[in-house]
Prior knowledge:
Mean pLDDT of chain A: 81
Number of helices of chain A: 22
Radius of gyration of chain B: 13 Å
Oligomer: heterodimer
Strand content of chain B: 15-25%
Shape of chain A: rod-shaped
Structural class of chain A: alpha+beta
Helix content of chain A: 40-55%
Amino acid sequence: MSVGRADLVGSPFHFARVVAEVEEVLVRELGLVPWPLDPDLARAEGTWKGQPAVIETRAYHGRGVRYARFVQMSGAGLEIGNALCLADPVTPLPILGGDLVALGRETGLVVADLSPTLPPGPGRTAQLAPLAAVRARRAPLPPGGALPAWCSAWFSSHALYTRVRPEQAPAAVDAFRDIVSAFVEIARAATPRVAVMTAVAAAQEGYAAAHRSDDKGLRLLAHTFGAAWAERYVHAALFPSLDPRALGWEIALSCDAAGRVTWVDERTGVLLDARPGRRFVELVLPEQAEKASRFLREARAGAADGWELSVLLCGRPATLLFCGVPRAGGALLVGSLLPELHHVAGARVAGIASELATLHREAERQRRALAGSQAGLRAALAREHAARAEAERLAAERAAVLGQIAEGVIIADAAGRITFVNEAAGRLHGSVELGVPIPRYTEAYHLLTPDGLPYPPEELPLAQAVTRGDTVVDAEWRVRRPDGSEVFVQGSAAPVVAADGTRLGAVLAMRDVTAQRLLERQKEEFLATVAHDLKNPLTALGGFVQLLQGRAQRGAPLAPDRVVEMTEQMEASTDKMAAMLDELLDLTHLQMGRPLELRRRPTDLVALAREAVTAQQGRTVRHRIRVETRVDRLVGVWDPSRLGRVLDNLLENAIKYSPAGGDVVVRIDQTASADEAWAHIDVVDQGLGIPPADLPHVFERFHRGANVVGRILGTGIGLAGVHHIVAQHGGTVTVESREGVGSAFSVRLPLTERASDHATGGSTGG
Amino acid sequence: MAQVSAGIGEAVAAVLVLVIDNDPQVRYLIRLALEEEGFDVATAGDGAHALQLAAERSPWLVVLDVGLPDMASVTVADQLRAACPAVPVLVITADGRAAEKAARLGAYAYLHKPFDVGDLVALVRRGLLADR
C-alpha cells in the first residue's frame, strides 16, 4: 500500500496526504494488515464538474480492529481525505472518524471525532479521557457551523468541526492528528470485554447506518462515479455491514433428551456461563423456564425457529433469538444476539424520529438478512446433521459388522493413527489402544517378526499401507500378549482411498494362525520322527545283508546259530517296519476320519500284555515293567495286532516320559454287571505326568504335553492312535495324571455276548 | 568273545568298543560287524546304561547314536569323557545335520543311517589309530 504519496491535485490543503500519513501511523501503531477490496472499489475514475475525478480506498483489519479504511478523492477543485476505524465489538473502542474536505482553493472543512460506543457514564468518560486531554491542549479553531442532526447524534462532546482557510489548515490538521493519537492510546490500553459487545456493535452499526443513508456528502459519490457503483461502494468499502456470523454473534449448544447441555461452543461458555451438565432451562430467566422447555421439546421434535428467550448474558438480561434442530435424541440450539443489537441501537436513537425511520429500515433489512442467514444456517445444520447421522450410522454399522467377524480388523487414519480395533483384533492382542501412531505400533501391540525380533514399526503391513499406499498380502508376524502368551498372526493391509483419490488411511485384516503353525510344525516333527524311526530297521536289514554277502564272498559261511540269530533280528526289523507302516496307514485312516478294518479274532489280553512287557523291558534297564493280574487269561474277540500296538504305545510312553526310571505296571482285570462285561488295561507309571491344561487334549492328534515338547522326542500321534483303536473296539480310554507323580492310562474293552459269540473258534491264548 | 582276525584287533587282545543305540537290531548289527573284525563289543540301549558300562569297562572307542530316549546326547558325550578321558566318539544318526551334531559332541567322525557296514568298520579303525 503506497502511503505518503504526492497529493492527487495541487490543493493547498494537502488533505489527501494527511490521510495517508494517518494511515501510516495507524498501520504501524496498531499492526493493521490489508483487507482486500474489489479492485474496482479500491480505485475508480469518474467525472466531477466535467473534469476527471479519481477515488482510491485502502482497507485493513487487525487485532482489536475489525475494519479500517482510508479514502483519497480528487477532482476539479476538490480534495477529500477520509478515515474510519471500527473496533472489534468485543474490544470497546470509540469509532475513529475523520473527514477532510477541500472545496476549491479557499475553504477546507475538517470533521473528526472519537465517537463513543459505550453508554453514557463513567466508563465512557474514562474511555474518552485521552481525547478530552488532547482537545483541551489546543487553541480553539474556527467553528465549522451546525452539525447535521444525524451526525451530532453519534459525536462526542470533544468532536472537531472546523472550517479553515489554507493558512489555518496546519492547525486543523494537527488537531486531527491529536485525535488519531488519542485513538491509538485508547486502543493500546483496551482489553476485550464481552459484556459490552452488544453495545459497541450497536453503536457501530447505528453510526454506519446513519452515515450510509443520511450523509449528503455521499451523493457526491453517486454523482461522480455512478449510482450503482456508489451504492456498492458505500456498503462494501465505506461502511460495510456487520456480519453477525463473522463476528460470532451467535451462540451454539446442544442438549440431550433430558435437556442437559452436552456441548457448548466457546462463546456460549463465556457469554452464558453454560457448560456441559447444566440444564438448558437454567440458562434462561426463571420466568421463561417453561417457555424454554417448550422450545426444547419443539426443537427435539422438529425444527424450531424464532423463539425469543431472555438469558443472562454476562450477568445482564438479554433477549436472544433461538432456533433449534433435533440431534441424537436431543437438540442442537443456535441463539442469535441480534435482537439485542436492535434493541440497544433503537434505544440510543430514541427521540430522533427521522433516524428511527432509518434505523427501522436498516433493522428490517438486517432482520431479512438474518432470516436468510438463519435459513442458510438451518440448511447447513441440517446437512451437517444428516452427514453426521450418516457417519454415525456407518460407524455403528462398521463397528457392529466388524465386531461380529472372526477376523481381526484394525483401521488407521491418514496419519497412521489407529482409530478402530474390532473385538477379534482386541482379543488377539490381549489389549486395545487407540490413537497409537506408527512409531509406537510395535511397542503398543507387542509385535515380533516370525523370528521373534521386535518388528520395525514402519515395515509393518498397516504402516506400509498408510505411508506408501502399498497393499500387503498374507504377511506374518507374532504377537506377545500382555499375559505372556504368543500368537502367530497372518494379515493383509490395504490403503483406504476416497472416490477423489484422497488417502483416508488403511485397514488391516488379520487372523490367528497359531494352531495352524503349531500343527504344521508338529506334522513336520512327526514326519521327521517317522523317517528317523524307519531308518533303524532299514540300517539293520541293509547291514545284515552286507555281512552275509561279505561272508559269502570270503567263502566263510556263518555258524548256524549265528544265522538263526541274525534272521531273527532281520525278522524283528521287518516286523518293526511293517508295524510302523501299519501305524502310518491307520493314521491316514484316522486323519481322513475313516474307520479301521479290524481283524478280530479271539485274543488273550494277558498273554498280549506279557509279550508287550517283555519287548519293552528289552529296551530299558532303568525301568521295571511288570504285569499284575488276578486272572491267567482274559479272552475277547479283538484285533490282536492293533491291541498290541495300544499296549506298545502306552508302555513306550510310560518309559519315555519317566526318564528317571521307576516302576511301570500293566494291570489287567475284568468287571461284569447283569448285561455287560468289560476287560480293563491300566498302564501306570511314575513319570513326569501331564500338565492339567494338556490333559483334555492328550488323545488329539499331534498334541504333546507342554512339559515334554522340545525335551523328549515324540510324534504326538501314539495316543491318538490308541484312542482310535480302542474306540473302534467299542471301548474307551481315559487318563489320570499328576505332574511330577505319574500317569495312569485306563483302557476299557467290551467283553460282551456279541464278542463271545464271535469267539466260537475257542481260545488260542495260553 | 574277541576273535582276533585282522587290523588293530590283532595287536591287542581286547579292544573294547562301546555301542550305544536304542534300536536293538542296530545294536546287534554293529556288534556283529565289529566282532567279525575282532573287536570286543559292549552295547547299551540308553544313556544311563552306557555310562554305567563306560565306568566299569573303560572302552577304547564309543559308537554313539544321537537321540537316546533318556538323555541328551551332549550330556552322554560329556559324561563319557569324564569317565574315559580322550575316548574317541563316532556318531551315528538318522537325522539330518549330522556334521553339526558331531562337532557339538566332539566326535571325530559321523555316519548317517542307514550306513555301509564297511564304512563303519573303517571309521572305527581310523578312530582307534588316531587315538594311538
